[in-house]
Amino acid sequence: MITDKVKLFLTYQISAWVKIVPGAASGPQNVNVALGVDNNWVNGGQVEINDDRWHEIGGSFRIEKQPSKVMVYIQGPAGGVDFMVAGLQIFAVDRVARFKHLRRHADKVSSRLPVK
Q: Where do the coiled-coil regions begin and end (predicted)?
């Protein structure tokens, strides 16, 4: 439950590492991270896992109306398939600072390109 942690009109990144327990699945498994915001679902990202390595799952979300309940869910593999989760993070992204950083990075890269 993260209701009291999120603020309106901010963009948040969400990420986690997930792994299917070795030998637990007989085929590819979809795992996703989602938010339950009141009675609506907000998808935070999905990954298909078909091996026993760790996979990063992530995405972003923004809440624009005051919710009464916000819960984080990591769900997916078929019933009876065990999985592990590590490093779940949810953090606000300062969009103005991010765009300035991306602009500086793009300008720096473009200044290295040869002029034709």
A: none
